[in-house]
Amino acid sequence: MSVLATYAEIIAVTRTVLLYLAVFVAAICAFDWAVRTRRINPFNRVARFFRGRIEPMMAPVERVVVRTGGVPAAAPLWALAAVIVGGILLISLMGLIGAILQQAVIGVAEPHRIPMILASWTFSIFRLALLVRVLASWLPISPFSKWIRWAFVLTEWMLAPLRRVIPLVGMFDVTPLIAWFLLNILQSLLGIP
Predict the structure, then answer these.
(1) What is the model's pTM?
(2) Calpha distance 76→80 (Å, rounded)
(3) Closest by CA position to 183, among listed 143, 154, 148
(4) What are phi and psi of 95, to 5 degrees?
(5) Which residues contact 141 (CB under 8 A, 6 or more apart)?
(6) Nearest-CA neighbor of 184 among 101, 115, 126, 99?
(7) Angle formed at CA 12 by CA 10 and CA 13, multiple of 5 degrees
(8) Of 28, 32, 186, 189, which has the fewest Cβ atoms less than 10 A away?
(9) Measured between alpha carbons, how far is 44 from 38 in angstroms, rounded to an integer?
(10) pLDDT tens across 148-158, in order?
(11) Percent above pLDDT 90 for the chain
């Protein structure tokens, strides 16, 4: 069995495990939310178990929610959202690594395609930087953070000119979306896969 087929099976198993994990976490978060909002009697045996075992695990999420102005009862919903988004990001990262492996195998087999593969990787890195930048704008993360700064450095050269031309839509900056479409158009015009 080839490396790519094995990796595809690993991705399939990871998707299944993440799906079951998300369903399990959704059930726990829904019950914890029901206990916190008093939709379920907080003094029955199961609710006491949740308050004693699950709520301490939710404490870090609850602190972040309260610090940002939310209510503690929303902590289970935010924990579920974090699990879902984390799973989507993990599967996307694994898919990206699989695509890179596939392109590397093609590059080894056909060396004349290496420049096109490198150009494709460059466009992918720019799109990833745009995505990181947009997600970071939704969270209380400094653009000078060592985890986010690279995305600002890679994308500011294309977003700054667009911001001078394209106004805000309400309170939203749509220039990353337009830059994403422009990158896709440029990539297809250049014939880069």
Answers:
(1) 0.65
(2) 6
(3) 154
(4) -65, -40
(5) 147, 148
(6) 126
(7) 65
(8) 189
(9) 11
(10) 899 999 999 99
(11) 20
Q: Answer for the pair 71, 6: CB distance below 8 angstroms, yes or no.
A: no
Q: Which two tokens stand for residue 185?
A: 């158009």
- DSSP codes joined into one string, 89-137: HHHHHHHHHHHHHHHHHHHHH-GGGHHHHHHHHHHHHHHHHHHHHHHHH
Q: Which two structure tokens, joined as six digits, stand for 52? A: 């004693």
Which of the 8 DSSP states describes residue 155?
H
Task: With CA atoms as reference, report the closest residue to 176 among 124, 138, 130, 127.
Answer: 130
Per-residue DSSP letter, 171: T
| Helices and strands in the chain: count of H runs, count of E runs | 7, 0
Q: Which two tokens stand for residue 143?
A: 């653009």
